Each structure stands twice: as C-alpha cells, then as structure tokens.
Input
Amino acid sequence: MITSQKATAAASLPDKSKGDAQVRLDNRNTVAHSARRCPQIHPLPRSGETETQGLQYKQPITLPRTSPSVPPPEPRPSIKLRSGWLCRTLAATALALVTPAPALPATDDGEVTNFLLDNGMEVVVIPDHRAPIITHMVWYKVGSADEPPGKSGIAHFVEHLMFKAATTNHAAGELGRAVSAIGGLSNAFTSYDFTAFHETVAPSSLEHMMHFEADRMVNLVLTEDDIKTERDVILEERRWRIDNNPQAVLEEEVGATLWQNQPYRIPVIGWLQEMDKLNWTDAAEFYDLYYRPNNAVLVVAGDVEPETVKALAEKTYGKVAAGPSLTRTRPVEPEQNARRTVTVRDPRVSVPGLSTHWVVPSYHTAEAGEAEALDLLAEILGGGNRSRLYQTLVVKQGIAADAGAYFQGTMLDATRFTIYGAPRGDAKLADLEAAADAEIARIVRDGVTDDELDGAKDRCVRSMIFARDDQPYMAYLYGSTLTIGRNVQDVREWSDRIRKVTTDQVKAVAARYLVPEHSTTGYLLPKTGN
Ligand SMILES: [Zn+2]
Output
C-alpha cells in the first residue's frame, strides 16, 4: 500500500466484487497494457464534424490535427473524440495545493445534475434513458503538466499502475476481469491537464464500478515488481508511439519549441531518459498527493437517476477521506517575439506536411468571448471542406491534399491555434504556407462575412445538439471541462455564447493572435527533396 494514511481511509469501503466477478474472459490485455488505455493523451475532442477521431492520424495527412507532443493514440472503444471544444475545438509544474471547490448548490435543469460529496468530490449526472447502459468516469485534476520537474511521464505511469497493481481489497486485474465478465468496457487516459478512468456497463453494475474506482483511489498496493514491469511497458509504449513515428517525433519537437516555459512543452508520455528513472517513491508520492476525492470529478451518464447516483456515490466514494487542498499554479508562457520553425527529415516519410501554431488563450484563460471567437475562426478558416483553407488550397489551387485548422480550447492554461496541410503532386510546402498565410492575412484585413459566421455558428451549435446523442462523449465533455476549472454552466451556455460572437470579434482575434512573427511551424519531410 502506498501510504498508511490512505489505506486507513479506505478500509471501510465495501467489497462487493468478491464472489460476483466470475472470470469468463481474461481481460489483462485490455486493462494491463497501457497502449490500450491511454490513447487520449490529449485533452480535447478535436476532430471536425466529419472526423470521428480527432486524435487519430489519418492518411494522407502527414501532420495530424493533434498536439505535437501527443503520441498517436489507439482507438478507444467508447469515447469518441471530436475536434475543437465543441464545433472544432470541443478538442498542460508546479505541484500545488488547491482550494477545495466551494459547495455547489445542487442544480437540476432536467438534463444535467451536479453536486458535491462531503469529502469534496464533485459529481455530475447526465441522465440518458434511451438504452440500458451507463458511462461511469472518474476524472482526476492532474495531468502531465502537473508533474514535478525531472519526472516527466509520472502521470501516465501512475495511470498504468492503477491497472497493474493490486489493492488491499482486490487482486491485480480484478476490475478488468469483472468488467469483461459483465460484457462492459473499461479504459483510461492521461492528458496534460487530467487523467480519467472509465467503464461502460449496465446500470445494475454501477455500484460495483463505483466500489472498484473508490477502492483504487485509496488502496493501491504498489510493489517494486509492479514498478519495474510497468515501467518497461511505458518505455515500450513511447518507442512505438513516438520514436517509431516521424510525425510524432516532429509533434514532440514542435511542442517543445512552441512552449518555451509552460509545461505543455513536455510530452504527456514523458522524456525517455526521465521515464527510465521513474521509481516507487515517485509513483507513491504522486498517487498519494493527487488521487483523492477532493481532486476528482465523478461523471455518470446514462440510464440512471441523480438520486441513485448520489446515494451510491456517498456509499462508495463518500467513504474516502479528503486529501490536502491543492491548487494548480504553473509557469506562464512569455510573449513570443520570433518566428520559429522545426524541421524533421526522415526516410520513412512518404508524404510531407506542415503545421503552424500560435499560442492563444483557452476557454479557461480567455477574456470574455475570445475563446468562442477563436472556435469560430477555426471553423471558418479550416473546419472541413467548406472552409477557406480547404476551398483555396485543395479545391481552387489544387496544391494540397488536405488543409484545415483547429483551436484546442479546453486547456487549463494558454493553448494553441493550429493550421495544417499536406501537399498534392509537385506542390511544395512553401506553396501551401504562402497560400495559408494569404488566407489568414485576408481575414485580418477584411474580416469574415456574416454568412460565413452564421454558417459556422450553425455547425457549432448543431454539433452540441448531436453530442447529446453520444453518451460517452457527453461524459467526456463535462469531465474535461470540470477538471480544468470550469463548470456545468459553461457547457450549458456554450451554444448561447457562440451565437453572440460578432464578425468584428472573429477579425479581432485573428489580428491579435495569428501574427506571423509569433508562429511556430513544423515541417515534415522525406530525407531529401521538397
Ligand atoms: Zn499508456
């Protein structure tokens, strides 16, 4: 066990798993191998309306619409990520100590209910009675950007250990086997700002899942053998996610260049030489500090009533003692005063690509209306095949195989606005870059039209409406929003705020943030040429 303090706190958790988790299928491959559990590594759903996995690489685009430091994820079975906050963006150290969230008044507008347990754990319930299934997610307000200096990868490592290690009440792998036995799904992911664990099961299994998650929140029993074997797993994961993929190598380099001071510059999976030295003490300290109910958000979506969730949450999570109050204060990015470029040449690259990034405010840091305007700017500039970049570079000029833009709005600190493209035929990256720069300059000079803005708003609002049909995604949406310090109301009112954005605001954010001299561009090239 990691600490006696935590073990004591959890001793009273009921153990309902014993006896009813008949093992019909060994689920170790699903829950034990990190690659299966941490595809997300990226905070926000980011793909466009037509994309299903914002985090997935797709051909022939050389540079994916993912954060540079994020390794390519494996598809997750139950969480479908979309790009941007919602329309396109609905897409990172100091450790610190937090003020517990103030007591929230219980709210219920017929759709989403949220409340606090006595130990400070926030709970969100998203009723959806169309099918007898629930999505149960536990979000921790800790990610790679909260890691202590020199310990990169520890957040992701602890995520792995949550599956690898036994607890005082359960053998290693028991949760996974229990979930498989009932035909459910279980997974987890780590990002810059959060770490989450989730199960999709029948409503009758909700209490069982709550028991398992509450148990491993406090009763993890780490052994040196767990550390050694799972460290090998994450090292191997890094090799295949990053080192074997020139796109990912470039993304990592771009991230470390775009961010000069902010911890988003460190890859979620960690730097190899630091990962290699992560040890029992590192894991135990990290777990003890962050895996606490008052640093977590429980999200339950599906065929269940808020009263039931509240009663079960009090019976399970409510028994776990609160930890110290934490606050998240991180190094702030200085103003960028030079255009930066990063070039990766690799013989494995068959199709070159480029992406240009600007540091912009996130929904959490922006002045009122700016993040919404950035979302709409991304939609107009590069949100699908009706966008300016696509129409100009792909359709009219025929110099690109694909082109687009995204705004990664749901981040705790300042974030990025990105455009990307891959050339077609004999076109050079310089051709794409010049054409894209011209489109941005045109918006800075002339703004966008009312029709463009109205269309972009419609698509964004529509995407929120459609999102309601996607239970795991709704759980993801609320979880990712709440763990970065925003609230249920922010999600509810997002569509209204989008509706209020003006053409002047879109023009203003383009002019203020998409400054060529403040950009960072990554080029992916074959060993020779272009
Ligand atoms: Zn992993």
The CA atoms of residues 151 and 239 lie 18 Å apart. The domain at 4-14+25-40+93-319 is CATH 3.30.830.10 (Cytochrome Bc1 Complex; Chain A, domain 1). The two ends are 56 Å apart (CA to CA).
